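Quick note —
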Amino acid sequence: MKSIWVGNSMEEFSDSLIDQVRFNSDGLIPAIIQDEDTGEVLMLGYMNRDALKKSLETGITHFWSRTRRKIWMKGETSGHIQKIKEAFIDCDGDALLFKVEQVKAACHTGYKSCFYRAADKASGTWIVEGERVFIPEEVYANVKNYGQHKMDGTNERTCLGKDEKSCGGRTFTNREASVLHELYDVIVDRKLHPKEGSYTCYLFEKGIDKILKKVGEESAEVIIAAKNRVKSEVIYEVSDLIYHLLVVLVEQGISLEEIYDELKRRR
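Predicted structure written out below.
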């Protein structure tokens, strides 16, 4: 195998590299993640074209969740990101290998590797090897409640899992609409308190031209999905577009309330 990785980002060459990849009938390719220093296999994930593109462009692994039907960045919840050091493709072009610098641990169960259970001939079962690197309950405790809501006597919903200030101190009469404010607040937090490996921080670092380029790309994706009349694709691409539009608002110092006021004025 020959490394196709140069430096921390392959944004300039990502499309050329991806065109040489053979995705399966579901549009996916398996990606083996290996610790750069120890050679330990950390996990196996699947990438579609967009996830691979994000991985190459940001230098942080991204995957396609086959259960949630969405792209996710490894460590986006725990902070245990994987910094890509080298990337390889196999002889048939249908499997990838990434050598990474793993922050903390790769497995959500607390072990460094997802392959922490070994076959035991004597017992005929899988035996846990090694010790946990972190305690999952401590890492994910607040995250599990984030975005959940409670009903109070006025039939309004307020944020739980974070204090009022973290959720903007707002209450909402519609549970679904509150997610826009939660996402907006996260984007603001990323701008004020940059977090290594964050895609949002990456956008702010690149500046307004990069942000607007992404808005243009996502708008085009919405048009294509709508033209094809594939509902799931429309939902996915519109969500991407809304996220990038919120990044624009934060970059420009415009609040959601100002957008609401303008919409109300027009109505």
